């Protein structure tokens, strides 16, 4: 169970993406001597909000870090504690249940979060001495609760400290679902589904990869700068930057500061985007002058990439159901100097009422999905999503793809993508759509620079059918499904 985890690694990723930053306050505040929270208290407050209010961990942590004004090192620890505790929640609870034989389910939420947070440090973070984790937890319990609670926290964690070697032994459950679920901390229903589709070995690799911190990547705006020049600029600004092996537009970045605050971002030289996500617009391969519809566009990552690939010539209608997200798309387009993007608001289920049938050369449906391809970024979805959510979202996707198809010209292209690895939302959607829509067929005519790295990595083989399922372990990028369909003439 024990793994050496780099405390500052995750923090660097989120800071680079601009999701974590220090708040700059106006003067005078230092005289008021506000009570400063420790990194563990910041982490605990965040975990409590995520558990009780269903807040997104990344947004909640960002807010908490801005308010707390921790040192870079402490912010790194708080980040590690939040992500690690959420990721390994199942395994931590399983361990705690061995020590708390009665009343585990009645423990109040904040005490449970504190126990999990402390257990995570003791079981997974070799750089933190167990006694330090216990002492900190007891101090927090004293400050927040009464002596009974701090006594209980002390008793459970000291007991854990004594049995640590035994508790860290690898899980050898005979049942592969339970073994994988407990080792990598995933719910059994999810592991069971993935074993059924991918087999035991691949399913385990998916689960392991979902616990790895994501790397930061950016997409170069080739209308403004070449990738080589962008690499030079980044190196000059203190980043370690290297070309993505997956896409000619991508750069993988480590070291340095907040990428979203960096000069090149403001000047529209690049956008922050995962490499798998970049492949979607590349598979669309839009030509300059085309009329393109992005059905579910916000915040505009793929919309802006499409417009860049079109050399800012033609039209990209970027639709999203949420009115407040329209600004996000418009801001992206403006920052990148893309004038052909028109952001609109509406339900994609009604797009055929607003636009003429058969009127777009290319329609992209980057559908809302369960998001299991981005568990590294949002670990709480392991615990919040249920099996019935997958069926409900699959039902919406199948209605969306039928509506999107109505708008594609004869001879035009429909691209369907999701950031999930669920067959029901991916391959099954395409199969059932094609069964009912004989005027469409899967299109294997993908750009060579997209196919080559996928072939080299063995992600696609001779039986490539015009769709791909990227798994998080393939390139260390998000799990994504992409299918390209052609409407027959
Ligand atoms: C996967 S995200 C899209 C990400 C976007 N394509 C990008 O690359 O930045 C899915 C989007 O679908 C939108 N959405 C959900 N249901 C929708 C509907 N019925 N009609 C239109 N948009 C919808 C959500 O608001 C969300 O922004």
UniProtKB/TrEMBL annotation:
Lineage: superkingdom: Bacteria
InterPro entries associated with the record: MeTrfase_RsmB-F_NOP2_cat (IPR049560), MeTrfase_RsmB-F_NOP2_dom (IPR001678), NusB-like_sf (IPR035926), NusB_RsmB_TIM44 (IPR006027), RCMT (IPR023267), rRNA_ssu_MeTfrase_B (IPR004573), RsmB-like_ferredoxin (IPR054728), SAM-dependent_MTases_sf (IPR029063)
Known EC number: 2.1.1.176
Gene3D superfamilies recorded: NusB-like, Sun protein, domain 3, Vaccinia Virus protein VP39
GO molecular function: methyltransferase activity
Residues annotated as the enzyme's active site: 419 (nucleophile)
Pfam family, one: RsmF-B_ferredox
Keyword match Cell cycle: no
Domain spans labelled SAM-dependent MTase RsmB/NOP-type: 206-488
Keywords, comma-separated and alphabetical: Cytoplasm, Methyltransferase, RNA-binding, rRNA processing, S-adenosyl-L-methionine, Transferase
Function: Specifically methylates the cytosine at position 967 (m5C967) of 16S rRNA.
Subcellular location as annotated: Cytoplasm
Positions annotated to bind S-adenosyl-L-methionine: 296-302, 320, 347, 366
EC primary class: transferase
Family per similarity comment: Belongs to the class I-like SAM-binding methyltransferase superfamily. RsmB/NOP family.
Protein's recorded name: 16S rRNA (cytosine(967)-C(5))-methyltransferase
Catalytic activity: cytidine(967) in 16S rRNA + S-adenosyl-L-methionine = 5-methylcytidine(967) in 16S rRNA + S-adenosyl-L-homocysteine + H(+)
Organism for this UniProt entry: Paenibacillus solisilvae
């Amino acid at each position: 169970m024990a793994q050496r985890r780099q405390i500052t690694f995750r923090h660097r990723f989120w800071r680079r993406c601009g999701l974590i930053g220090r708040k700059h306050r106006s003067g005078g505040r230092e005289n008021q001597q506000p009570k400063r929270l420790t990194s563990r208290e910041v982490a605990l407050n965040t975990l409590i909000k995520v558990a009780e209010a269903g807040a997104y961990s990344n947004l909640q942590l960002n807010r908490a870090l801005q308010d707390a004004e921790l040192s870079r090192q402490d912010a790194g620890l708080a980040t590690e504690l939040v992500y690690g505790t959420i990721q390994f929640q199942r395994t931590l609870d399983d361990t705690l249940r061995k020590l708390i034989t009665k009343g585990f389910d009645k423990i109040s939420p904040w005490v449970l979060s504190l126990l999990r947070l402390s257990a995570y440090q003791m079981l997974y973070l070799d750089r933190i001495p167990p006694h330090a984790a216990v002492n900190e937890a007891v101090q927090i319990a004293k400050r927040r609760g009464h002596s009974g609670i701090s006594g209980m926290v002390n008793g459970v964690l000291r007991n854990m400290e004594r049995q640590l070697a035994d508790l860290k032994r690898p899980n050898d459950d005979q049942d592969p679902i339970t073994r994988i679920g407990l080792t990598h901390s995933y719910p059994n229903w999810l592991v069971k589904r993935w074993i059924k589709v991918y087999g035991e070995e691949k399913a385990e690799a998916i689960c392991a990869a979902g616990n790895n911190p994501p790397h930061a990547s950016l997409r170069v705006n080739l209308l403004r700068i070449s990738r080589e020049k962008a690499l030079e600029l980044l190196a000059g600004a203190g980043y370690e930057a290297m070309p993505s092996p997956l896409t000619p537009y991508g750069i993988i970045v480590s070291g340095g500061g907040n990428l979203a605050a960096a000069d090149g971002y403001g000047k529209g030289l690049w956008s922050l985007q995962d490499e798998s996500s970049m492949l979607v617009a590349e598979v669309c391969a839009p030509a300059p002058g085309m009329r393109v519809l992005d059905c579910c566009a916000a915040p505009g990552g793929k919309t802006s990439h499409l417009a860049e690939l079109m050399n800012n010539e033609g039209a990209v209608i970027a639709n999203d159901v949420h009115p407040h997200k329209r600004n996000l798309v418009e801001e992206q387009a403006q920052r990148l100097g893309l004038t052909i993007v028109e952001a609109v608001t509406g339900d994609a289920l009604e797009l055929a009422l607003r636009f003429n049938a058969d009127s777009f050369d290319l329609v992209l449906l980057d559908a809302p999905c369960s998001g299991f391809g981005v568990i590294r970024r949002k670990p709480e979805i392991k615990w919040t999503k249920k099996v019935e959510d997958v069926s409900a979202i699959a039902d919406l996707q199948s209605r969306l793809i039928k509506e999107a198809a109505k708008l594609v010209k004869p001879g035009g292209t429909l691209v369907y993508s999701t950031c999930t690895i669920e067959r029901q939302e991916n391959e099954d959607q395409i199969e059932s759509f094609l069964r009912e829509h004989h005027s469409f067929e899967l299109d294997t005519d993908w750009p060579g620079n997209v196919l080559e790295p996928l072939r080299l990595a063995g992600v696609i083989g001779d039986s490539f059918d015009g769709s791909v399922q990227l798994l998080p372990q393939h390139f260390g990028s998000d799990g994504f499904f992409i299918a390209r369909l052609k409407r027959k003439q």
